[in-house]
Please model this.
Amino acid sequence: MSCPSILHVITRSDWGGAPHIVQLLAEGTNADVAVACGPGGELIDRLERSGIRVYEQPHFKRSIEPMNDIRELVSLYRLMRRESFDLVHCHSTKAGLLGRIAASLAGIPSVFTVHGWGFYNTEFGSFRKAIVSGERLLSRWTDAIVCVSNDDHRQGMTRSILSHTEDVVVHNGIAPIEIPDDREHLDNHVNSISDSTVIGAIARLAPQKNPLTILKAGKRIQDDGEDVVVVLIGDGPLMEECQEYVDTHDVDAHLLGFQEHALELLCDINTFLLPSRFEGLPLTVIECLHLGIPIVAYDVGGVAEAIEDGETGYIVPEDDFEQFVEQVRTLAREPDRREQMGEQAQQTAAERFTAERMVTEYERVYADILGYSTL
Model:
């Protein structure tokens, strides 16, 4: 089997880390690839421009809605039976649930990539224990589970999820970042920023990403007299709360919302802040490594597997706000250290976090399941 037929299944099509990985695998693997996903997002546009078949699933939603989820399960099952795929590759918790059940019913082998376990998410509340039990059951119907970090693998082993199937760790990677000479600049969005040190992030303004900690860190450092400006790029349910904090505490901070050219604007951020409450292996970290931007991050998920503490950024114990502020302050005051860390970050990215390496490792997983050689 030199060119298998593979269906990738992902819940949402709006742009983010997991959709980016789906795009890279769809475009990079030696296979006849199609993608099933929720409607209306940027992932669909990107895939269609590359000639990848897309099957929009109108019933796919992140929230738990039993009747809607049953409709989606039936839709996926019918799609898999009709198109006779050789392999189904699922991404994200909801797609992992419905996609693997549908694949099992259709008699098709499946792979599940853990982009951070669903039970990490505190927003799921009482459903978190059910998610663990469900993952244990689903693992018996899964031919391989891929974790994007060693930490995800440890968590899966601790909860006996990975006891019944083949498992492997494949760290995320991205293609070389090409920034145009006429790129978008932060100066076009924020006045009088060119002489200041810019700290901030590209992030969904949601509880997981903990954006208020970024604003509070910026406030503390500004109060100490440092010429620091905070920039947050992204939208989300905490946008209003973040803006209220900025207004009531007189923080020199700018909430830019969704930006089409966010990666170009990232080039103007001097230090990236990642105080997340949970993560798998976020692509924003890998993007910063490729762009040579040092990072200060809480030690959650697989973040410390990408950032070399003291070399390409700083890893801070989870929720240690005082140390987080201190490390951000250090980089704000020492541009030479930022530059040195940035150079080391780019070297690390080129050696360890490329799309080419990631795709090759996934193709080995596919070959092991389907019984063909990648040579």
Observations:
- Residues 5-175+354-370 form a domain with the Rossmann fold fold (CATH 3.40.50.2000).
- The chain has 14 helices and 13 strands.
- The chain has a mean pLDDT of 93.
